[in-house]
Design a protein that fits this description.
This protein has 346 residues and is of the alpha/beta class. The chain contains 11 helices and 14 strands. GO terms for molecular function: nucleotide binding.
Length: 346
Amino acid sequence: MKFGIIGAGMIGQFHARALQAMSGGTLHSVFAKRPEAAEAFGREFNVPAFSHLDAFLDDPELDIVTIATPSGAHLEPTLAALAAGKHVICEKPLEITPDRIDTMIEAAQTAGKTLAAILNRRFHPAMDAFKAAVDEGRFGRLTSASAYIKWFRDQAYYDSAAWRGTWALDGGGALMNQSIHTIDALLHLAGPVRAVHAHTACLAHERIEVEDIAVALLEFENGARGVIEGSTCTWSKDGHPARVQLCGTDGSVFLADETFELWDFRTERPGDATLRATLMKGAEAGLGANDPKAIGYLQHQRNFEEVVLALREGRQPTTSATEARKSVALIHAIYESARTGKSVSL
């Protein structure tokens, strides 16, 4: 299938490299509003470049569009691509409010096209093993489920683009931008949240509207309790890995990025020793914790391949828009709780 990218910035570069490496798809074209950005991207990846959206979308060979624009600028290009008869894979967050996501979902249904998201932290062997342990009931009664994203962004990061740190285009701060993939992973593993009580603050940055630290207490529908802590003001030389930790009456697992810090169950199984030998390497540095460019494209590649496979099999992808909506709805509830000082039910 032939892919076109909307957006020629840092995330568009990740998309391009993933598309060049994937099976089942090829990088076909790029669109950017600024002609010089589109042309530079086109030269680098040897594809046609467009600075007029209609011309980009009118290409009959174009099958799938990926959206790599700022977070609060996902809605309009997604609606345009769907109306033009293209499938869409959109970066995180799918959009910055649940209402906007609902508009996108409705447009995809009307067009009869697939709308999928980038939920790339779901695509690695450790996550596969973690999810299998949950689905097999190895934790017994799940009692605790938490996520910790203690990252760092310097002031220059926020000053590098006018949209960064704004409610209108970033949709939020440390939670909506940096923590959303790990929050998605927490929900993917532990299930939906019933209620939240949260606090947010901006402690270490200037000239931004959004939080650089947030702490939320969670009550899950299955009864488990937990915490989300997300920040962009916790410095570390190499950066802290993003962590998801689940505990229950029969087991505990601590995931740090793509390796385990703990894999411990009351009942040992034959594959557990092999898993510890291969997936408990210890994260030397957090993936993207201090530098957003310091992430690989392999998980994006697997995400794209899953969507193509779903299209061929006539099913919804595992990273559907409905799945992507869950983390945005939770983050919005956290923001509401922080604003009002009250618990918020979902």
